[in-house]
Fold these 2 entries.
Entry 1:
Amino acid sequence: MTVHDLPALNAALNAVAATLLLTGHRFVQRGEIARHRACMLGAFFVSTAFLVTYVAYHAQAGSVRFTEVGWPRALYFAVLATHVPLAALIVPLSLLTLWRALRGEFDRHARIARWTYPVWLYVSVTGVMVYVMLYHLWPSAEIG
């Protein structure tokens, strides 16, 4: 695997995280707490792996420019403008949510998870969208 393979790996990790989040949410709705816990821990570890490989990629490759113009550019930056701040927010939010669950503070966990879950899911899905737009739909991206 080379540095140029990391964006595809990152998108795959985001897709797996989104799938685990959706599945874990469904399990908690059904009262299947052990399965919920397994999915959410899986999502946390997959998202952590994403963060490590994302930082490694950008440390080696630098920033990637989106060079398309017109409506694709507006769409890309609209998604990116919401994705980036929420991605930064999800790190402490997911840590706090996980901490409360592991400490058995389930009432407090549930209160914050109502916010963490949709933000984390949005960040995971839009992460895949950014990858698809940048490397597949309009692959004019330049590493620089």
Entry 2:
Amino acid sequence: MATIMPEGEDIQKAIKWVSMNLEEKSDQPLHKLVEKAVFKFDLSPVDTEFLIGFFKKMKATT
């Protein structure tokens, strides 16, 4: 099943950044990475909720 990517460049960069960090060290708490990504990429509340949901869905399918 394909995941729909949001159109905003910042949220796409945030997804890639969090994914890269999880690949490097998978035991990092997701909420801490999301928190860092929110500030690093200046995400809106809607983008933040999408990011959280995206990784929770990904974790549920693995």
